[in-house]
TrEMBL record:
Its main location: secreted. Keywords: Chondrogenesis, Developmental protein, Differentiation, Disulfide bond, Gamma-carboxyglutamic acid, Osteogenesis, Phosphoprotein, Secreted, Signal. Residues 1-16 form the signal peptide. Residues 52-98 form the Gla domain. One of its GO terms (cellular component) is extracellular region. It comes from Malurus cyaneus samueli. This is Matrix Gla protein. It is found in: Secreted. The keyword RNA-binding does not apply. GO terms for biological process: cartilage development; cell differentiation; ossification. The keyword Signal applies. Belongs to the osteocalcin/matrix Gla protein family. The lineage of its organism: Eukaryota, Metazoa, Chordata, Craniata, Vertebrata. GO terms for molecular function: calcium ion binding.
Length: 103
């Protein structure tokens, strides 16, 4: 019983020593408000120049010209691609996808 009381007192002392918040931790302005404003969040981080080029390429991929979409669609369809090798992608797209075929 005596060892149990000594162990409990020792545990309370260890807990009090490790859980104590010092005055230095309260001096930080982040103690009261740990979250940053969205506008200030990226102020201290500079974008990597390699990532900037990657981002620009992703933007260009999203905004393709209509001719690029037509060419990709024609490249996916083998007969259209063969026709395009002889007559060009514009003529091939018009031949295979340009007009609606009705039966």
């Amino acid at each position: 019983m005596r060892t149990l009381i000594i162990l409990m007192l020792l545990a309370v002392l260890v807990m009090a020593a490790t859980c104590y918040e010092s005055h230095e931790s309260m001096e930080s302005h982040e103690y009261l408000n740990p979250f940053l404003n969205r506008r200030r969040a990226n102020d201290f981080i500079q974008a990597d120049s390699r990532l900037r080029g990657f981002t620009q390429e992703r933007i260009r991929e999203r905004s393709k010209a209509p001719q690029e979409y037509q060419r990709e669609r024609c490249e996916d369809y083998h007969p259209c691609e063969m026709y395009a090798s002889r007559h060009g992608y514009t003529a091939a797209y018009k031949h295979y996808f340009g007009r609606r075929r009705t039966k």
